[in-house]
Amino acid sequence: MTFKKRTAIFLLLATSMMPLSAFLPLSSRPDPADSTVKNLIVLVADGMSLSQCTMARWYTGAPLALDEIRSGSVWTYSADSMVTDSAASATAFATGRRTCNGMLSITATPPILSTLSVPEPDFRMRPVATVLEGARLTGKSTGIVITCPFTHATPGAYVAHAESRHLQHDIAEQAVHGGVDVLLGGGLSALLPRDAAGSREDDENLVQVLRDRGFQIIQNATELSRIKHGRVWGLFSAEAMAADLDRPVLAPEQPTLAQMTAKAIDLLSRNDRGFFLMVEGSQIDWGNHAHDPAHAIVDLVAFDHAVRVALDFAKRDGQTLLLAISDHETGGFSIGNMQSGYSLSPETLNEQIKKMKTTLQGMIQRLAPEPENWTAKDLMTVLEERGIDVTEPVVRLMRDRIRARKPNPNQSAGRLLLEVVNDVVGSQDGSFGWTTYGHAGGDTPLHAFGPGRPTGMLDMPDVGRLCARALGIDLDALSERLFVDASSVFSDGELDVVPTRFVERRDKNGAVQNHPVDWTIRINAGRHVAELPVNQNILRLGGREILLEGVVVHIPKTKKVYLPVQAVRLIKQ
C-alpha cells in the first residue's frame, strides 16, 4: 500500500468516533529471532573509528568491553553527502530513514546523492517516528544518557523533529513534552528562562513543566546516587559536561558516563514491559575535531566503561539486545604518521597521551574568553598541564602570534591555540596522524549482543529498522499516527499558524526586527476553536487542556504543521 493510500485511510478513520487503539496499529510482527527482546540499549560513540578502539586498547593495556562483542561494521553516509554529520546518522539510527545533514528525524529533501531515489514531493521534510517514541507508546520506559547538552544532534534525533539541528530551544521543548522518563547529561540552560540563568529566548521555564508532570530534577552525582525510583531528569551542567579527563578537577560533582548508565538501567528496568535506552559517548567526537588524542581516547575509555555496565546487565537479563555503534569517523585518526616510521611502542604512544593532564577544551576553560587577553603566564600554566615543555621566550612568541592574528569568528579559541602550538613548538602528538578537522566517510565498527544480534555490514538506516523490529514497532504506521499534515485535514479557512512570542534581533543590515520564537496552531473546525502550541503535546479545546500522545511539529521551510491523529479526531468529533 502506498504512503498516500495509507494516509488517506488513517485520516478517514480519524474522523470517526472509534477508540484510537481500534484502528491505529503500532506493532508489526517481529522476526522470530527478535521475539524475546524486552529491552533495547543503543550506545553511540560519537566520532569513534576502529583505529581509536585499537589505541584505547593499547592505552588501557587490556581488552575493551567492545572487543568482546565486535560483530561487523556500519556504512555511514547521509542523503546528501558521502560524509555524514551526527544529525543525519542519529536520524537513521532512530527512524530507519536516511536524511540530509543537519536535519533531525524528518525526511530528506533534494538535492540528494545520485545513488538514492528522490523522495516524492509530499514526503519531503516530513517528521518520521523514532524508536524511542514507539517504545513509549508500547508501554516501555525510555531513557537518554549523554555528556553533551541534551539538545545536541544525537539525543535530539531520538526526542525531536526539526529542520535544523541548531534549533536547540525547539528540540528542548519537544524533549520535555515528549515524555522521556529518564534523561541524564548536560544542557540545563536550554530549560530555563534568561532571568533564571538560562538561555531560552521565549522565557519559558521547562524545569517547572517537568516538575508539574512529576519528574525529579537533580544536578549532581550525590543527588543521582539517592534516586531510587520514578521519572528523573538529571542535568549536571548548564551546557556540556566536563570531559572525562577534566572532570576530577573542573567538575568533581558530575557523575561519570558509566554511573549515569547504571542509574538509568536501574530505574528503567523496573518497568515489567521493558525499556529503550540510548547512551552517547558525546565527546569522543569533540576530541577528534580538536586533534586532541587525550580527550578522544580517555572519553572513549569512559564510553567503554558504560558499555561494560550495559553488557553486564544484558548478560544477566537475557532479554536485552545491546548495540554499540559509531555514527561516523571524526578527524581521520591514525596510529602512526609520515614521520613516525615503523618503530612505535605502547610506552611511546601512552606517554604522549598520559602526559596530557587536561584536554585542549579544559585548557581553554582556564584561560580568559578572549585570546587577545591571554598572558604569557596563563599560557605557560596551561601548557605545562598539557605536558608541553616550553620556555618563557617560546610562550611569549606564542602570545604575540595569537595577538597578531586577525579575528576569525568561525575559529574557536581551542583551534587557534592548537594551531599556534603546532606552529611554534611542533605537534605534540608525534606518533599520531590526522587528516581532517571534520568528519570522514569510512565505515565504523558495529558491536552487538543479545537476541537478534546483527552481524556483517549494516547501512545506517538498517540500524533503525533493526531496532524497530526488535521492539515490534511498525515505524511507518507510527509516523502516520503521530504526524498528520494538518493542511490535508483542515482547510485554509480553518487552519492558522500564529506567532505568539517575539524577540528583537538585528538583521544583516543592523536593523532591529521582531523575530517569532513561539507559534500556536489555531483550528476552527467545529463547535470550538482548538489551540495547539508548537513543540508541545497540548490541545486546548472547549475549555479543556488535553495531553496528546505526541508533539505538534512545525516545519517553517515548508510551512507545514503536523499533528497526532488523536488531535485530529478530538477536534473533528
Question: How is this structure best described in words?
Answer:
The chain is of the alpha/beta class. The protein folds into 3 domains: 37-333 and 437-473, Alkaline Phosphatase, subunit A; 358-430, no CATH class; 484-572, Copper Amine Oxidase, Chain A, domain 1 (2-Layer Sandwich), CATH 3.30.457. It has 22 helices and 22 strands.
What's this entry about, in short?
The protein is of the alpha/beta class and 573 residues long. The chain has three domains: 334 residues, Alkaline Phosphatase, subunit A; 73 residues, no CATH class; 89 residues, Copper Amine Oxidase, Chain A, domain 1. Helix content is 36%, strand content 20%.
Biggest sheet details? 10 strands, mixed
Identify the CATH architecture of the largest domain. Answer: 3-Layer(aba) Sandwich
Name the CATH homologous superfamily of the largest domain: Alkaline Phosphatase, subunit A
Percentage of β-strand residues: 15-25%
Describe the strand arrangement of the main beta sheet, using strand numbers: 5-6-4-3-7-1-8-13-2-14
The mean pLDDT is 90
Question: Which stretches are poorly predicted, pLDDT < 50 over at least 5 residues?
Answer: 1-5, 8-34
CATH topology of the largest domain: Alkaline Phosphatase, subunit A
Helix vs. strand class: alpha/beta
Give the distance, in angstroms, between the N- and C-terminal Cα atoms.
27 Å
Overall form: globular
The top level CATH class name of the largest domain: Alpha Beta
